[in-house]
C-alpha cells in the first residue's frame, strides 16, 4: 500500500509517518507547506494533481482538513483521510467536507458531534495520542544537569495567545456595547469548567460586528450554512478567553509558588513579572525533559476545545510527568482522576491542589507513574492508527 502524506509541519506528523511505515505502508511526502506558508489552495491543488497523475495512492493523508486536497482527491476519486489536532478548524465549514471521498477523523467529541451531520458516513471520532517510545528514549537518558535545568515546582509550556488573538486587533473597531458584552461573557465563562456556553450566548449583533470588523473572516461562496456564530465564539472570543485565563492563572500561581514559563509568546506583561520565564523549548528534544523533570505540569485547555483532550495532555503523561489540568468532559473516558492525573475546576481548587501535591511527593510520583503506564499501554499512535485503518478498511476500495 502506498499513500501520500501532505505535510505542513505539525508536531505529530513524524510519529504518524513512522507508524504507517512500521505497518508496512509506503509513505511518500509532499512538504512544500513545511517551509512556505504562502502556498495557495490553487498551488496545493496543482501540486497534488501532479502526484495523483503519477501514482496510484491508496489514499492521501494530512493533519487537519484541507479543502483543496479534498476537492482534488474527489476529482481523481482517491480517498482523502485527515485527522484534526486543533480546534477550531474553520476549513471544516468548506463545502468540500461533504465529499464522499473524505474520511475525516476529529479528536474533540463536541467538534465531531457538530460537524458529523454534514457527512455522517465519512466523519469519525478519534482522540489524540502520544509516542511514549520516543519520549522514553529521551527521559531515560536525562542527566542530573537536565533535571536541575529543566525542573521546577510548576511548569507551563505553551502559548499565551497574545500574539494569536484576532479579537484584540478588532477590539478598537467594535462598539462599546460589543466590547462590554464580550468582556462580561469572558468573565462568566472563566468561572465555569467543563461546559462552553459562549456560542449559545452571543447576540446576533455581536456576531455581525465581529465578522464585519475582520476582512479575513472565514466565510464565502464555498461555505455551507452560517459560519459566523461558531467562529465568533471559538476563533475570536475563545482565543481572547485563552489569553486572559492563562495570564491570570500564571500570575496567581506565581504569587505563591515557583512557576516556570516556557513560551514563544512575548512574556513582557506586568502580570507575569513573578514568573521564571525560560523562553521556548524544542518540542522533540527539550519539551519531554521539562515534563519529566517538573514536579507539576500545568495544562490549560483553550475553551474552543470543548470536551476533548489536547495533545499536551497525552504528551505530558507519555513523558512520565505529573499532570494537573483543567477538567474536560472526556477525561473520565480515558483516565481516573486522582489516580492517573489530577484536574481542577476553579482557580481556588487549582491553587489548593498545587499546594497539596508539592507537599505529598509520594502521591504525586505514584500518579505520574500510573498516568504514564496507562498512556503507554492504551493511548499510543500505533493503537490510534490501527483503529483508523480498521475504520478505513470498510470504506477504502
Topology at a glance:
Blueprint: E1 2-6, H1 13-22, E2 26-30, H2 32-35, H3 41-54, E3 59-63, H4 67-76, E4 80-83, E5 102-106, H5 109-115, E6 123-125, H6 132-139, H7 144-150, E7 154-157, H8 166-170, H9 176-190, H10 198-201, H11 204-213, H12 228-254, E8 259-262, E9 276-277, H13 287-293, E10 296-299, H14 311-318, E11 323-326, H15 331-334, E12 342-344, H16 347-358, H17 361-378, H18 381-392
Helix pairs in contact: 3-4, 7-13, 9-12, 11-12
Describe this structure in words.
- With 397 residues, this protein is of the alpha/beta class.
- It folds into 2 domains: 140 residues, Response regulator (Rossmann fold, 3-Layer(aba) Sandwich); 247 residues, Glycogen Phosphorylase B (Rossmann fold, 3-Layer(aba) Sandwich).
- It contains 18 helices and 12 strands.
- The strands form 2 sheets. A 6-stranded parallel beta sheet has the order 2-1-3-4-5-6, with helices on both faces. Strands 9-8-7-10-11-12 form a 6-stranded parallel beta sheet, sandwiched between helices.
- Helix 3 runs parallel beside helix 4, helix 9 crosses helix 12 and helix 11 packs across helix 12.
- The chain is globular.
- The chain starts with a strand and ends in a 5-residue tail after the last helix.
Question: TL;DR?
Answer:
The chain has 397 residues and is of the alpha/beta class.
